[in-house]
């Protein structure tokens, strides 16, 4: 593995190699070196001798582990960006535009949910004040004041029967069918919508 | 400002009343709830004659359940140009701030894939395949912004580039330096990779309003044509049932069994009140002034509506998005229904 | 004039609708030093200038332009303002403050979203309104939730030292009260806030290679750098020794979390052989749910599958995935995760 190709591009941070890979000068290294045999060739800049002294007994470290360690603690780390004035101004403009766009999008989503909520609220309020003939009664005669939907009013069970049934949450919390929970995709499926589904 | 005295007085009177709805109700309910708490629960209270004339006990309204059956969006929406441009801009910035690509972790040396990588990196300068030809470090790394009219931010262009990269090995005609074992010695493209299905389907092009493959980015709502010829959501009268079970029954009775649907929750999402011009006399001797329809939300997961043999006299159906629904239904119906429907 | 006779509030409500969306510069009675420039700034709009013509746009080549100005290979002159952000934060009163994280010059700048995740789009278009409909609870107009009473008990008795003593700790195990579920409105629909991927490897206490591989695996799956943790105490049952590096976690937010979850639900979980699902009793009572994956399941992630040979055999760890949500109780979180596509089995305790 030739790590020197990175050196010219980045500014190296700290020491280049940490994990006992021999930094053999190019003229001494054989042209094709299989990765499984341990590196025994040494030079004055190599740390292999010291590390081989440390690891006594047992097989040498798996080269895959060495590679993973190198990639995790990569010695070449980029530095913060440095923009010119006009470039920075363009970035600032883009950032402001994006923040504004996100704000508008969030607001639109909130408003849509609010509209749906208000529509539900109006319908449920109508149900609460409606008796079995479909006529509205006054607030005093209806039930369901306060948080408890099951509370009956003066007129009793006649008023708001459908409202009380609507507020029951029994069976709601496990009721989502797995077919419904299908994430949107970027492109449609090959078969498209299954128009021929039958109830078996 | 030059407002006349009368206008100012009128506006002031209206302004004085512009308290928010819930506060107004709090103020009125304070007295109502106090009165309710004080009322004893026996017949003496019913003899109290309120100042407002109560509706006659022979009046009624028919109660119906409607079902707003919707097919949720199947694909992601088209990105706004600002969004697609911004995402590409951020990915270009990422090229400049990310750690270098760990090539040997993914491509072993002297394999065909490694050679292919070496060829391709010279062409596109970056491991990423869909951000155009750009290198995050070096002489020209400052030039990371796209020029006007560039196609790199378009998702279709990006998908094309990814597929191209997967199909071609990057080998040119004169590139026979290293005969690599295992690689096919062909300069032509390898087997074609399947392109993804287009986002605009056939049903979109034909504008087939009965198909559920149309407008995959939007929510489609089921509208049916009743005996009077009006386009409405499926509805039916009911009794001795909850709204949830009535909704399920309405769906199977009107549109057949071959629809995999789910009625969401027990609570209605909206209502529509229809007042008849002349009250109808019902069988139980009540005078029906109109009908109130409470809509339940339902989702369809598979299948298609089938109006054959339906007991509600429905003649036709359509699957329409929100603004198309507005074009089909009556004005007062739309006014009651529009807040239930989703924008997308 | 009638306007001056009305009180201030009425005047404000009167002209609420008459007020235009964009504030036009009103002739004010008081004049500041900046009155004149403000008028110019407010009237100008970048949309009043037409965009550059097509030929101009096509003929623009930034590299050529730079070469013409550079005069060959001469090094660029040092710019007048060399800014390096401070490496350490020295407090709010120090003259050199770190720039905001959104500033590209900041050391903590991370490039922003690269895509609009499909899970987020599904949630916003379909799931949010369905959850609202499912869990809708009606409150009559004018209903105000009662003020939350004192939940911690006082020391009650004859003992003289009970007076002014700090309140008693909460009932039951632990020292934290459970979350109260506020009334459901369209503003507090449960949503997924964070995902944590956690992998504990007891063998790492002997051989650090296991920890490195776990870190690499977690980083590959989640696109977020993993952080290592030491064992807090000695636990013989799990083989933990205090002070040894033993596990790695990574916290995913926003885009990363959505991409990870959609990958998990659509690619990884369907491939698991003979998988019953996630037990429905999972949940910590505060709206967070957890599921576990074994080493074979983790190997099914596309990022691990693509270079499976680069990992030594049998060293790829399993992990726990915790999904943190906005919900304040188990059943809301359960409903949310069901609607996203996670299959559950068994009873929800």
Summarize the structure.
Chain B: It comes from Periconia macrospinosa. The complex is a heterotrimer of chains A (200), B (344) and C (349). Chain A contains 5 helices and no strands.
CATH top level of the domain at 198-345 in chain C is Alpha Beta
- Main sheet: strand order of chain C: 2-3-1-6-5
Q: Mean pLDDT of chain B, as a whole number?
A: 84
> Would you list the SSEs of chain C in sequence order as H and E?
HHHHHHEHEEHEEHHEHE
Low-confidence stretches of chain C: 1-6, 18-22
Distance between the termini of chain B: 43 Å
Number of DSSP-assigned strands of chain C: 7
The CATH topology of the domain at 198-345 in chain C is 50s Ribosomal Protein L5, Chain: A
Shape of chain B: elongated
- The CATH superfamily label of the domain at 198-345 in chain C reads Ribosomal protein L5
The biggest beta sheet of chain B reads: 8 strands, mixed
Q: CA-to-CA gap between the ends of chain C?
A: 70 Å
Helix content range of the residues of chain B, please? 25-40%
Question: What is the 3D form of chain C?
Answer: extended
- Oligomeric state of the chains in view: heterotrimer
Radius of gyration of chain B: 33 Å
Superfamily (CATH H level) name of the largest domain in chain B:
Nucleoside Triphosphate Pyrophosphohydrolase
Structural class by SSE content of chain C: alpha+beta
Summarize model confidence as the mean pLDDT of chain C.
89
Named at the architecture level, the CATH assignment of the largest domain in chain B is Alpha-Beta Complex
Structural features:
heterotrimer; A: 200 residues; mainly alpha; 2 domains; 5 helices; 36% helix; elongated; disordered N terminus; B: 344 residues; alpha+beta; Nucleoside Triphosphate Pyrophosphohydrolase; eight-stranded mixed beta sheet; Ribosomal_mL46 (chain B); transit peptide (chain B); mitochondrion (chain B); Ribosomal_mL46_N (chain B); structural constituent of ribosome (chain B)
SSE topology:
The complex is a heterotrimer of chains A (200), B (344) and C (349).
Chain A: H1 4-7, H2 48-54, H3 63-72, H4 85-128, H5 161-166
Chain B: H1 5-16, H2 21-38, E1 59-71, H3 81-97, H4 103-106, H5 112-124, H6 155-167, H7 202-206, E2 220-225, E3 231-232, E4 235-237, H8 243-255, E5 259-263, E6 270-281, E7 287-303, E8 316-320, H9 322-328, H10 331-337
Parallel strand pairs in B: 1-7
Antiparallel strand pairs in B: 1-2, 1-4, 2-3, 2-8, 5-7, 6-7
Chain C: H1 2-5, H2 8-14, H3 35-43, H4 54-59, H5 62-70, H6 118-134, E1 192-200, H7 208-222, E2 227-230, E3 245-253, H8 254-271, E4 278-279, E5 288-293, H9 295-298, H10 302-305, E6 319-325, H11 330-340, E7 344-345
Parallel strand pairs in C: 4-7
Antiparallel strand pairs in C: 1-3, 1-6, 2-3, 5-6
Helix pairs in contact in C: 6-11
